[in-house]
Each structure stands twice: as C-alpha cells, then as structure tokens.
Amino acid sequence: MSTTTTMTVEPTWGHGLNLSSGQRDPVYDLLTPFDKMPTKMTGRTVWTKEELAADPDRWIHHWTAEEIQHVESAIHQVEKQNLSLAKVDRSTFVLPSTVASTLTNIRDELINGIGVTVLRGLPVYNWTTRQASIAYLGIGSYIGRRVSQNRMSHMLGHVKDLDEGKEVNGEGRLYRTHNAQPYHTDDADVVGLLCLHKAMHGGESQVVSTHNIYNVLREERPDVLKELCMPHWFYDRKGEISDGDEEVMRVPGYYYYKDRLSMKWDSYYVGALQRFWEKGLLPTYTDAQREAIAVTEEMARKLSFEMMLEQGDIQFVTNTHNLHARSAYQDANDSEKKRWLQRLWLATSEEEGGWPLPFADSKYEKRGGVQICCYGYNQASSLENWHSLTLGSLRAQMDDLLDMSKDSIVDIVG
C-alpha cells in the first residue's frame, strides 16, 4: 500500500458538483517538523475542566423567549414556502441581526476559542421532528456549511442505537450503537448534536482541549508527544473510499501549520487495522505507538470536562483543537423514549474564517466530510417521510439510498 509523500490537487473538488471534499492525506511538505513546533500553547484554546465547571456562562447560551420566537418564526417561514430540508440555510432560515450576531460570536468562539458551546432551551417537545430538523439545520447554517457524514453523502445524521454490533469486527460506526465512544475528532471542522431524547441511563458527553493535552505531554511525556506528531498514523476509511483513494489515510496526530496546532485522532479507527496487518499491507504498530495510544486516551480522560445534554440542547464542538467522547448508555424499552440525537458536520473553510490546514482543500468551502464519487443511484425513499419508516425497512434500503449527484440532506439509518 502506497505511502506517497506528495499530493495532487484536484482542479475542482467533488467533480464540479459542490460535494464535500472528503478525507485526504495532508500535503506532507507543509507539515512542521516536531523540533520546530511550539514548546507551549497559550490563549483561549487552552482550557481546563475546572475552568468550564466554574464558569458555565462561558460555554452555555440560554435561549431567551424572544430568541425562541424568532427561531419559530423562521421555522414557519420555511414551512410556508414548502421548502425541502435541503433548502434550509441562512437565505431561507432568516434570523434578525441580534440573533445572527449572537451566533456569529458563538462561531468565533468555536473556531478561535474554547471550541465548545451548548445552546440550551429549544422547545423541541412542542415541535414535530421535521420542525426540529428545520431549526437545527437553520441554526447550524450560521456556524458553517454542511458536509456529508457517510458513504451515502448524507448530511443530517441520526445518532441512535441500531444494535448492529458491527463495531466488534471493525466494520461499523460506533455512533449507531449504545457503546462508549473513545476520544476522537470527526472528519469536519465542527460537529453539532441536537438532543431530541435523552437515554434512560448514561450517554454523557466529554470534551477536552487538545492544546491542554499537548502542553501536559510536553511537560510529562515528550516522547509520547513526538510519537503523536510523526506522520506514521494510519486511519481505516471503513470502506468509505472515493475514486482514486486507498483504504487508509496516513496523517500525524498533531500537526502545526501557519501558527495553528490541529489534531486528528480516533483510536477506534487507528486501531481497526488488523486486516491490513494480517495481509502485510501495513506495518504493525511499534511499542512506542501502542504506548502513545494508551497514554493519549488516559490523558484525555484525565483532563476532560463532562456534560449531559438535555432535551432541546444543541452542542457544537470544534474538531481542530478539541477531542470529544461519549459514555455508554442504556435505553428505555419504550421505542418513543430511546436516546435520539441529530448530528451535523460543518465546514469552516480558510476562506470563511476557519483555520488554515495543511490539506489541499483548506480553502474549499465544503472541506472535509466523506465524499464518494459514484453515480446512477436513486433514493428509495422520500427525504421528507424518512421518520415514518420502520427500522427493518431502513436497513433493507441502506444500499439503495444513494443519490450522488448532490449531497443528500438526511441519513435515515444512523
């Protein structure tokens, strides 16, 4: 399997179809050597769990009654125009300048500050599922541009336990189970979660500053930090492979570019390489790499801040300088009361105030996500009635739910 050190830049990402650009190896020549990386990170991106616990107003925004009225007015305008969910954006979900300004400030704090916020108090219990989706998509459009989350180019994911159990053999996506998720970054600048229903037990959300981890490792385990900064970490694509791509990516855990320290990390994907090792396609991890995985996970647990998302909460977390995780959970037997979150992946490109990244798509407006280039498929079900289908029918239709001429709006199976 190739480990090339250069990258050809596509003239137009997504073959001219305005698709998410997908995941690629970095431009290795742009990576800063470890000995030239900062000795210590400072500023708003370095925070501790004690600081967030002591000052919840720093990361929680409580919707006012007036703001909720404006959100509901925007929902009704979308409904009045009979717009599809795919058409919900800043131009159709119009908020007054006061609310838009608040979301702009939150966006800046996500990109350049602590990188986590919770918008609390949306009355989703009074809304239909579609109305909640409209509000979520509309609010999210003030933070970033939606990018796809899976091989079917779906852009609104549903985080539910499908009891697939595939994660044990390295084939599945953990967000479709009730199991704990290890500390990781997602394949987009910002991840958003809207809580429609809490679990009966568990399901807490954890988040940690990767810049804080970096500083502690510099002080206590510089050997581990150096290992994380080497471009010898492979990530299994889990079969989500665009034309011309290989089955794995090679990316350093930490990388420094244009005065920005970013991290890409997911011990689940990093560790799901057994089938490649068995075939001799990749070198097995060294003892130093295995120790780095264990130390990073333990350091993240030690330094992380934990929160519980309440019904109606929207959580946004940056993936450039935070890791996030989730505790295992137990659902109620009543299917109407099972844990249910909606997920967005959002791009904040370099051209739109986001961080510069050592990747060829850094300035592309829909950078990141999962981009698969294949054509000729039609969606088997209307995006507007997905919530009325049974779980069995959803699974049966998974392979048919492809419409690659555009990024689809909803993942009905997650």
UniProtKB/TrEMBL annotation:
GO terms for biological process: antibiotic biosynthetic process. It holds the Pfam family TauD. It comes from the Eukaryota. Keywords: Antibiotic biosynthesis, Oxidoreductase. The keyword Oxidoreductase applies. Residues 92-345 form the TauD/TfdA-like domain. GO terms for molecular function: oxidoreductase activity. This is TauD/TfdA-like domain-containing protein. It comes from Exophiala sideris. The lineage of its organism: Eukaryota, Fungi, Dikarya, Ascomycota, Pezizomycotina.
